[in-house]
Specification:
The chain is of the alpha+beta class and 155 residues long. Helix content is 29%, strand content 42%.
Length: 155
């Protein structure tokens, strides 16, 4: 049974690789495969552009009531504002050992240039246990969305 399933998988892979390489055939099935990589590449490039030009500065954290809260300065190198910025921050125990990563979404628009956003908070619960001595470390941008500008009504 194992040999047959491997043979089937190999045949499927050959079909998926060879049909786009052959280009258009009489059955027309090569057209769909040839267009798929270009469309996926275009979508990936368009989706990744806002986050690529967005940087996060050193955050300033405080602890209290089982939370870490503070502010982060963002630098937006895009020509347009972004929103729904997903930020991931690493956390460490009192000895500097990593204990986890937490993410949050910043709903506030980040305009081009430098923007400081306060009121970012994380709980200090890791693996269903409160780690009150946990320290927040560096943060990184995971994703962001471009703010769509709508035309103002003229009436």
């Amino acid at each position: 049974m194992g040999v047959r399933s491997c043979t089937f998988l190999a045949a499927c892979l050959c079909f998926l690789i060879l049909v786009p390489a052959l280009g258009s055939t009489n059955c027309g099935c090569g057209l769909y495969f040839a267009a798929a990589p270009a469309a996926a590449e275009e979508i990936h490039d368009h989706a990744s552009v806002p986050a690529d030009k967005l940087a996060v500065g050193a955050p300033h954290w405080r602890r209290g009531a089982g939370l870490v809260y503070g502010s982060i300065a963002f630098t937006n190198g895009n020509d347009y504002p972004v929103r729904d910025v997903t930020v991931a921050c690493d956390f460490f125990d009192e000895w500097g050992n990593p204990i986890g990563t937490k993410m949050t979404i910043i709903r506030h628009p980040v305009s081009p240039g430098r923007t400081k956003i306060s009121g970012i908070y994380f709980t200090l619960i890791f693996a269903n246990r409160l780690r009150s001595n946990a320290l927040a470390g560096a943060c990184r941008i995971i994703s962001a969305k471009r703010v769509r500008e709508y035309p103002t009504p003229t009436s």
